[in-house]
Amino acid sequence: MTDIGLGGRTRLDRDRLLRLLQDYGVHLGVAVLLLVNIAITPHFLSAENFRTQAVQVAPVLIVALGMALAIGSEGVDLSVGSVMALSTSLLSLYLGYGMWIALLVAVLGGAAVGVANGALIAYIGVQPIVATLALMVAGRGLAQVLLPQLKDVHDPTMASLGSGDLLGIPYLVLIAVALALLVAFVVRRTTFGRQLLAIGDSRPAAKLAGLPVRRVLILVYVCSGALAAIAGVLATARLTASDPTSLGNLMELSAITAVVVGGTPLSGGRVRIGGTVAGAVLIQLLTATLIKHDLPPSWTQIAQAVVIILAVYAARERGRR
């Protein structure tokens, strides 16, 4: 009996450890990277460095928010990087009509890609990974057709958006934080958020319960597309140039990493916005650490892949219990 009791206690301790790692491992990872950088990276604690890191993480976080909604519905959106490229092309083409018109067209372009993704998934029954992969290829191609090469953006308002600040906090960071709070509110406090989680938990059960599954799925991908377009606009404002060839490349990898590491399971039914924010910060710190110590960019991709595998393994082990 004692052996059984000890064995049961050991399993409980292991389950508790796995649960803690899934829920708070990303925060621990951020803390560890901060301590490592403080110890070995020169000038890491400078205000300018923190400002740079915050500005660079903002587009990743915004895209990851939309990705979290897609994954929470038991899907995925591989087209987010191409949507960023499409938005920068549209922004550049319509900037002559005024910044606000250009912004609206860019965001509507991203939302239109989301409608196409959602329709393929909800009405035709195409798997999310296949539907969004098709739009990933088509979106990048359309972006390059609209704007074949890099083009400088000469607009004072856009320049101010990319480099300006309010009380010392960059506009890009303020926008990213505001969107994170908005998405968190939508997921936790609205009917749409509850329906999204129910669909992600069990789509057949959601249909039997009379939930508007198709409408919710389309809205999920519209939100993801619109958020990716906003990220593309902000990245363009920061770079003061539209480059549909490279903007958003591998952004889907960074977004998926941030979401999964943040504790949102790939099986759907749950969305952790706080964890997604921490995941985006973790990815940025990891990238910055490798760059500051003169390691090639390919190491960043390898490190992200390792982080994804560890996060998925932890979720899989927990799911077995």
From TrEMBL:
Organism in which the protein naturally occurs: Streptomyces lasiicapitis
Localization terms from the record: Cell membrane
Pfam families assigned: BPD_transp_2
Ranges annotated as spanning the membrane: 24-45, 57-73, 93-113, 120-147, 167-187, 216-235, 297-315
Alphabetically ordered keywords of this record: Cell membrane, Membrane, Transmembrane, Transmembrane helix
Protein name, per record: Sugar ABC transporter permease
Recorded topology in the membrane: Multi-pass membrane protein
Chain's gene name: rbsC
UniProt keyword annotation of Transmembrane helix present: yes
